[in-house]
Amino acid sequence: LSVLPSEILYELLLRLPVKSLLNMRCISKSWFALISCPIFIKTHLKFSTQNQDFRCLFRAFMRIASLLTLALLMQLCIKKNLPIYLYLFNLIFLAMASWVGACEGLFCFFNQFWVLFLWNPTIRKSKKLPFSGLDPHCGQSSSCGFGYIECQDGYKVVDIRGNSHGDVFLNVFKIYSLRSNSWKRIQDYP
Amino acid sequence: MASSTTGEKKILTLKGGDNEEFILEESLVLQSELLKNMVKEERVSSIPLPSIKSKTLVKIIEYLKKHAELTPSNKEEFKNFEKEFVNVVLEELLDITVAVNYLKINGLLEFCCQAVADRIKDKSVEAVRKIFRIESDFTPEEESEFRKETPEAFEGDLDDTTN
């Protein structure tokens, strides 16, 4: 074999797991450039999610993660002699509130201080999102969502707070875009 | 030149890199996009493939024959054949992959690429460089930076033999 044709290299890299791709960046400048190229990353994501195994693995992971938290919490309350219902309540709260959403291999959640995070488990990197400007403690109802918009090729987080002003109930919408790393307030919705 | 005809089947000759000749039915080579276009446009009866070793060509023809016999009932058997097909030394697998890419046999190309990827995914950076004969073009500083940031990349399977 003299030189590997570039089209084969491309096909080859598409079929490598993310973990080896991260390592293979160290091979040479051209490999580094190819693996870091956004178009390649997108194609690789599409290619690997076509694979059904990946989705099953993902679901299994989520299930194991929630079981583990449950087991840990049970152990904790047995050790500290505290009523189990307190921890179960806590757990339900955790499960309901902390996971905003998951999409295309990215997770969005907030921690106990209501700070939003994006997390990519495959490359073990997380990103703290800037404060949305909406006070988490005020507002009678609040809701968060996370998703990917194909036509804009971007990840978005939506933060909604509802408040009643006299007779009128007003929702404030804010949208975060990962691409610009900023929040934008959009039209209020009654 | 018109292709020779025996009965209704057209016969075609492929010439490997070491001038060895392989005579086979034209319908078989139509699985290769490259040869299909050659046959259609020029009505040739003999195609020289000097860049492909005869050993590699033998393997590819073996695949073409098996693939042509593929029916829903022998799917399982074909899958086993495919597994055995890529169970060769890495050097040979790479030769086959490059040849298949040149001949444009799409299904087989995808299968070969997956097989190569599976073979190299756990290898260390040094081993992969040796396998593909790549010289690092990073500066020594960049190189040591990588070693600090991703030490596991240099600790993988060090086996760089291709045979």
Structure write-up:
Chain B: Residues 152-163 have a biased composition (Acidic residues). Chain B: Part of a SCF (SKP1-cullin-F-box) protein ligase complex. Chain B: Keywords: Ubl conjugation pathway. In chain A, α5 (52-79) runs antiparallel to α6. Chain A has helices spanning 6-14, 18-24, 29-36, 38-50, 52-79, 84-97; strands spanning 99-103, 106-110, 116-120, 125-128, 141-149, 154-165, 168-177, 182-189. Chain A has three domains: 6-49, no CATH class; 53-86; 92-189, no CATH class. In chain A, a hairpin with a 4-residue loop joins β3 and β4 (125-128). Chain A is built from six helices and eight strands, in the order ααααααββββββββ. Chain A has 190 residues and is α+β, with helices and mostly antiparallel strands. The N and C termini of chain A lie far apart (67 Å). Helices cover 42% and strands 31% of the residues of chain A. Chain A has a four-stranded antiparallel beta sheet. A four-stranded antiparallel beta sheet of chain A has the order 5-6-7-8, with no helix packed on it. Chain B is of the alpha+beta class and 163 residues long. Chain B has helices at 26-29, 33-42, 54-68, 75-85, 90-103, 106-120, 125-131, 140-149, and strands spanning 5-6, 9-15, 21-25, 46-48. Chain B is elongated and about 65 Å long. Chains A and B meet through α1 and α2 of A and α5, α6 and α7 of B.
